[in-house]
Amino acid sequence: MAFDAVKLSAKIEKEFCVDNKRKYYRFRFAKQYGGIATADVAGCNLRCSYCWSQNKAWYPETNGDYFSPKEVAGKLTKLMVENKTGKCRISGGEPTICRNHLIEVIKNLPSECLFVLETNGILLGYDPSYIKELSKFSNLHIRLSIKASDFDMFEQITGAKKEFLSNQISAVKSIDEAGISYNLAVMHDLYSEKKYYDFLEKLEKIIPSVHSKIENEQLILFNFLKSRVEKRSLIEYLKESGRIQ
Protein backbone atom coordinates (compact mmCIF):
# COMPACT_ATOMS: atom_id res chain seq x y z
CA MET A 1 0.00 0.00 0.00
CA ALA A 2 1.29 3.45 -0.94
CA PHE A 3 2.44 5.69 1.91
CA ASP A 4 2.37 9.39 2.75
CA ALA A 5 5.86 10.79 2.06
CA VAL A 6 5.35 13.88 4.23
CA LYS A 7 4.22 11.81 7.21
CA LEU A 8 7.22 9.51 6.76
CA SER A 9 9.48 12.57 6.72
CA ALA A 10 7.98 13.76 10.00
CA LYS A 11 8.46 10.30 11.55
CA ILE A 12 12.12 10.19 10.51
CA GLU A 13 12.71 13.70 11.83
CA LYS A 14 11.06 12.94 15.16
CA GLU A 15 13.04 9.75 15.69
CA PHE A 16 16.40 10.53 14.13
CA CYS A 17 16.98 14.29 14.42
CA VAL A 18 18.16 14.69 18.00
CA ASP A 19 19.21 18.14 19.30
CA ASN A 20 19.61 19.24 15.67
CA LYS A 21 21.98 16.34 15.03
CA ARG A 22 21.30 13.90 12.20
CA LYS A 23 22.59 10.47 11.27
CA TYR A 24 25.19 10.10 8.52
CA TYR A 25 26.64 6.77 7.45
CA ARG A 26 29.62 7.93 5.40
CA PHE A 27 31.81 10.91 4.47
CA ARG A 28 33.76 10.55 1.22
CA PHE A 29 35.20 12.19 -1.88
CA ALA A 30 33.26 11.25 -5.03
CA LYS A 31 33.93 11.65 -8.76
CA GLN A 32 30.56 13.22 -9.60
CA TYR A 33 30.51 16.92 -10.64
CA GLY A 34 34.19 16.65 -11.50
CA GLY A 35 35.02 15.74 -7.90
CA ILE A 36 32.95 16.57 -4.84
CA ALA A 37 33.11 16.20 -1.05
CA THR A 38 30.14 14.08 0.01
CA ALA A 39 28.22 13.40 3.21
CA ASP A 40 25.86 10.41 2.90
CA VAL A 41 22.83 10.85 5.14
CA ALA A 42 20.61 8.13 6.60
CA GLY A 43 16.85 8.41 6.19
CA CYS A 44 14.67 8.94 3.11
CA ASN A 45 10.99 9.71 2.55
CA LEU A 46 10.71 7.63 -0.66
CA ARG A 47 11.34 3.95 -1.38
CA CYS A 48 12.51 4.04 -5.01
CA SER A 49 12.91 0.58 -6.51
CA TYR A 50 16.17 1.50 -8.26
CA CYS A 51 17.79 3.26 -5.26
CA TRP A 52 21.48 2.29 -4.98
CA SER A 53 21.71 3.24 -1.29
CA GLN A 54 18.43 1.83 -0.03
CA ASN A 55 19.84 -0.50 2.63
CA LYS A 56 21.66 2.42 4.28
CA ALA A 57 19.31 5.29 3.47
CA TRP A 58 16.05 3.58 4.39
CA TYR A 59 17.08 2.25 7.80
CA PRO A 60 18.46 5.07 9.94
CA GLU A 61 17.77 2.97 13.03
CA THR A 62 20.56 0.56 12.07
CA ASN A 63 22.96 2.79 10.12
CA GLY A 64 25.12 5.77 10.87
CA ASP A 65 26.13 8.05 13.71
CA TYR A 66 24.81 11.43 14.81
CA PHE A 67 26.61 14.60 13.72
CA SER A 68 25.86 18.25 14.40
CA PRO A 69 25.64 20.73 11.49
CA LYS A 70 29.01 22.19 12.47
CA GLU A 71 30.59 18.71 12.48
CA VAL A 72 29.13 17.88 9.05
CA ALA A 73 30.31 21.19 7.60
CA GLY A 74 33.75 20.61 9.14
CA LYS A 75 34.11 17.16 7.62
CA LEU A 76 32.98 18.41 4.19
CA THR A 77 35.38 21.36 4.37
CA LYS A 78 38.26 19.05 5.30
CA LEU A 79 37.46 16.79 2.33
CA MET A 80 37.33 19.80 0.00
CA VAL A 81 40.73 21.03 1.17
CA GLU A 82 42.33 17.57 0.97
CA ASN A 83 41.01 16.99 -2.54
CA LYS A 84 41.44 20.54 -3.83
CA THR A 85 37.82 21.09 -4.79
CA GLY A 86 35.33 23.82 -4.04
CA LYS A 87 32.22 21.62 -4.23
CA CYS A 88 30.36 19.60 -1.60
CA ARG A 89 26.99 17.89 -1.20
CA ILE A 90 24.75 15.77 0.98
CA SER A 91 23.68 12.56 -0.77
CA GLY A 92 22.57 9.01 0.01
CA GLY A 93 19.24 9.72 1.72
CA GLU A 94 16.95 12.78 1.62
CA PRO A 95 18.79 15.89 2.90
CA THR A 96 15.69 18.08 3.27
CA ILE A 97 14.39 16.00 6.18
CA CYS A 98 15.45 17.82 9.38
CA ARG A 99 15.20 21.31 7.89
CA ASN A 100 17.00 23.24 10.62
CA HIS A 101 19.92 20.82 10.48
CA LEU A 102 20.33 21.30 6.73
CA ILE A 103 20.13 25.10 6.94
CA GLU A 104 22.77 25.14 9.67
CA VAL A 105 25.07 22.85 7.66
CA ILE A 106 24.99 25.31 4.73
CA LYS A 107 25.53 28.28 7.06
CA ASN A 108 28.65 26.63 8.49
CA LEU A 109 30.24 25.93 5.10
CA PRO A 110 32.73 28.36 3.53
CA SER A 111 30.70 30.91 1.55
CA GLU A 112 32.95 30.46 -1.49
CA CYS A 113 32.22 26.73 -1.87
CA LEU A 114 29.39 25.39 -4.02
CA PHE A 115 26.87 23.31 -2.07
CA VAL A 116 24.85 20.86 -4.19
CA LEU A 117 21.55 19.89 -2.61
CA GLU A 118 20.48 16.52 -4.07
CA THR A 119 16.79 16.12 -3.30
CA ASN A 120 13.51 14.63 -4.48
CA GLY A 121 11.85 17.96 -3.70
CA ILE A 122 8.84 16.47 -1.87
CA LEU A 123 9.25 18.69 1.21
CA LEU A 124 10.22 21.73 -0.88
CA GLY A 125 6.96 21.43 -2.79
CA TYR A 126 4.98 20.81 0.38
CA ASP A 127 6.18 23.98 2.13
CA PRO A 128 7.20 26.89 -0.17
CA SER A 129 8.78 28.72 2.78
CA TYR A 130 11.55 26.11 2.67
CA ILE A 131 12.59 27.28 -0.79
CA LYS A 132 12.39 30.91 0.32
CA GLU A 133 14.80 30.12 3.15
CA LEU A 134 17.19 28.28 0.84
CA SER A 135 17.14 31.12 -1.69
CA LYS A 136 19.19 33.23 0.76
CA PHE A 137 22.28 31.12 -0.02
CA SER A 138 24.15 32.33 -3.10
CA ASN A 139 26.41 29.25 -3.09
CA LEU A 140 23.53 26.77 -3.49
CA HIS A 141 22.70 24.54 -6.47
CA ILE A 142 19.71 22.18 -6.30
CA ARG A 143 19.71 18.90 -8.21
CA LEU A 144 16.14 17.66 -8.07
CA SER A 145 15.43 14.07 -9.09
CA ILE A 146 12.13 13.72 -10.94
CA LYS A 147 10.89 10.21 -10.25
CA ALA A 148 8.29 9.58 -12.97
CA SER A 149 6.52 10.88 -16.05
CA ASP A 150 3.02 10.22 -14.69
CA PHE A 151 1.23 9.70 -11.39
CA ASP A 152 0.74 5.93 -11.59
CA MET A 153 4.37 5.38 -12.51
CA PHE A 154 5.47 7.62 -9.64
CA GLU A 155 3.64 5.39 -7.17
CA GLN A 156 5.10 2.23 -8.72
CA ILE A 157 8.65 3.55 -8.57
CA THR A 158 8.66 5.29 -5.19
CA GLY A 159 6.04 3.43 -3.15
CA ALA A 160 4.61 6.82 -2.11
CA LYS A 161 1.11 8.00 -2.96
CA LYS A 162 0.87 9.21 -6.53
CA GLU A 163 -0.17 12.76 -5.64
CA PHE A 164 3.32 13.47 -4.33
CA LEU A 165 4.50 13.84 -7.92
CA SER A 166 2.64 17.17 -7.75
CA ASN A 167 4.93 18.17 -4.88
CA GLN A 168 7.94 17.58 -7.09
CA ILE A 169 6.55 19.71 -9.91
CA SER A 170 5.50 22.47 -7.48
CA ALA A 171 9.01 22.45 -6.04
CA VAL A 172 10.58 22.90 -9.48
CA LYS A 173 8.27 25.81 -10.27
CA SER A 174 9.03 27.55 -6.96
CA ILE A 175 12.79 26.97 -7.28
CA ASP A 176 12.72 28.43 -10.79
CA GLU A 177 10.71 31.46 -9.65
CA ALA A 178 13.08 32.01 -6.71
CA GLY A 179 16.03 32.23 -9.11
CA ILE A 180 17.96 29.42 -7.44
CA SER A 181 20.49 27.57 -9.58
CA TYR A 182 19.12 24.10 -10.33
CA ASN A 183 18.84 21.18 -12.69
CA LEU A 184 16.47 18.23 -12.98
CA ALA A 185 17.71 14.65 -13.06
CA VAL A 186 15.23 12.57 -15.05
CA MET A 187 15.57 8.78 -15.23
CA HIS A 188 15.37 8.62 -19.02
CA ASP A 189 15.79 4.84 -19.18
CA LEU A 190 12.40 4.26 -17.54
CA TYR A 191 10.48 6.02 -20.33
CA SER A 192 9.79 5.32 -23.96
CA GLU A 193 10.96 8.22 -26.12
CA LYS A 194 7.36 9.36 -26.59
CA LYS A 195 6.55 9.34 -22.85
CA TYR A 196 9.79 11.10 -22.08
CA TYR A 197 9.25 13.97 -24.52
CA ASP A 198 5.54 14.22 -23.74
CA PHE A 199 6.48 14.67 -20.10
CA LEU A 200 9.05 17.36 -20.92
CA GLU A 201 6.46 19.17 -23.01
CA LYS A 202 4.03 19.18 -20.05
CA LEU A 203 6.77 20.53 -17.78
CA GLU A 204 7.63 23.29 -20.26
CA LYS A 205 4.03 24.51 -20.20
CA ILE A 206 4.38 25.01 -16.44
CA ILE A 207 8.03 26.12 -16.41
CA PRO A 208 9.03 27.52 -19.84
CA SER A 209 12.78 27.51 -19.15
CA VAL A 210 12.92 23.95 -17.82
CA HIS A 211 14.21 22.23 -20.97
CA SER A 212 17.71 23.66 -20.51
CA LYS A 213 17.79 22.27 -16.95
CA ILE A 214 17.25 18.60 -17.84
CA GLU A 215 19.91 15.99 -17.04
CA ASN A 216 19.30 12.51 -18.44
CA GLU A 217 20.07 10.26 -15.51
CA GLN A 218 21.09 6.75 -16.50
CA LEU A 219 19.66 3.71 -14.73
CA ILE A 220 22.34 1.31 -13.50
CA LEU A 221 20.42 -1.93 -13.06
CA PHE A 222 22.58 -3.67 -10.46
CA ASN A 223 21.76 -7.35 -9.88
CA PHE A 224 20.43 -6.62 -6.40
CA LEU A 225 17.93 -4.15 -7.89
CA LYS A 226 16.42 -6.41 -10.56
CA SER A 227 14.09 -8.32 -8.24
CA ARG A 228 12.85 -5.06 -6.66
CA VAL A 229 12.16 -3.56 -10.08
CA GLU A 230 10.25 -6.71 -11.02
CA LYS A 231 8.17 -6.58 -7.83
CA ARG A 232 7.07 -3.04 -8.67
CA SER A 233 5.94 -4.15 -12.17
CA LEU A 234 8.46 -1.86 -13.83
CA ILE A 235 9.86 -4.42 -16.25
CA GLU A 236 7.42 -3.40 -18.98
CA TYR A 237 8.61 0.19 -18.76
CA LEU A 238 12.18 -0.98 -19.17
CA LYS A 239 11.28 -3.15 -22.14
CA GLU A 240 9.38 -0.30 -23.75
CA SER A 241 12.37 2.00 -23.34
CA GLY A 242 14.67 -0.62 -24.86
CA ARG A 243 16.68 -0.82 -21.62
CA ILE A 244 16.20 -4.60 -21.39
CA GLN A 245 14.98 -7.22 -23.83
Task: Describe the structure in your own words.
The protein is α/β, with parallel strands linked by helices and 245 residues long. It has a single domain (5-241), classed as Aldolase class I (TIM Barrel, Alpha-Beta Barrel). 43% of the residues lie in helices and 20% in strands. It is built from 11 helices and 9 strands. Strands 1, 2, 3, 4, 5, 6, 7, 8 and 9 form a 9-stranded mixed β-sheet that branches. The chain starts with a helix and ends with a helix. 40% of the residues are buried. The mean pLDDT is 89.
What is the strand and helix layout of this fold?
Layout: H1 5-16, E1 17-18, E2 21-30, E3 36-41, H2 54-57, E4 65-67, H3 69-83, E5 87-91, H4 99-108, E6 114-119, H5 122-126, H6 128-134, E7 140-146, H7 151-158, H8 164-178, E8 181-187, H9 193-206, E9 214-217, H10 223-231, H11 235-241
Parallel strand pairs: 3-5, 5-6, 6-7, 7-8, 8-9
Antiparallel strand pairs: 1-2, 2-3, 2-4
Helix pairs in contact: 3-4
Concise summary:
This protein is α/β, with parallel strands linked by helices and 245 residues long.
CATH class: Alpha Beta
Largest sheet report: 9 strands, mixed
**Kindly, what is the distance between the CA atoms of the first and last residues, rounded to a whole number of angstroms?**
29 Å
Radius of gyration: 17 Å
- The succession of helices and strands, N to C, reads HEEEHEHEHEHHEHHEHEHH
* Oligomerization category of the chains in this entry: single chain
Unreliable residue stretches: none
**How many separate helices?**
11
Number of domains: 1
DSSP, total strands: 9
Proportion of residues in helical segments: 40-55%
Tell the overall outline: globular
Mean pLDDT, nearest integer? 89
Work out the strand percent. Answer: 15-25%
CATH fold-level name? TIM Barrel
What is the CATH architecture assignment?
Alpha-Beta Barrel
CATH superfamily: Aldolase class I
The structure class reads alpha/beta
